[in-house]
Amino acid sequence: MRMQRPFTLVLLALLLTHLAPTGALATPLFEATYEGEYSNLNITMTRTLIKKGNRYTLSSKAKSFMAKIEENSDFSIFNNTLRPHKYSYERKIFGVKKQEQLAFDWESLSASYTKGKKHEGAQSLVQKALDPTLYQLQLQRDLAQNPHQKSFDYTFVRRNQTKHYQFKREADTSMTFKGKPYPATVLTRTGDGEKETKLWLIPELAYALAKIRHTDEDGDTYEVLLTHYSNTDAFKQFLQAPPLRQ
Questions:
Q1: Domains in the chain: boundaries
Q2: What's the predicted TM-score (pTM) here?
């Protein structure tokens, strides 16, 4: 009998997900909650973005009956690209914990990976490299600034590896959120063999990620839907390119 992977882990790998807010008094630029179901297990995921000075923290949390996973990304914006500074990942499954961290040094163009308390090595960085959680946020910025862009390519580091995600734009469609229909932009991840990952984003809601569907090689399909979303004017400004310096 084939063992099924915990749905939460699969979604986090896809969402790159995705966390408890780190500034209790700070107003989140956006808050999003997702829900899904797999093998009769209910999954809940939340994401928040908080600004403190010139830095931002993207926080994510996913939980089910069997597992809890948290990720935090501390980043800034450099040359209109999200620039990670520190990434942390923690999961707890059936009481077993795992912790990982990435520390980014942009002066030396290197990222240091720590597992638990043990340093596991460092790797070279390329300019515009992201951490595992930031590609979706960068995707939202790219769409907000270039609504007709057809393809997207992102590089990120994870566990002493460099990975690449490519997406292509499909025909636009519509979807319902809170009982209201919205036009939706659909993207499909390419170059992933027989796996398929699709993202639905709603331009009218600041390109909120409204649905994620992933199909494995064996045909298993996992899906989460946006159930709560709010943002601020500051988030809409965050999505736009900064003005050119004179």
A1: 7-239
A2: 0.85
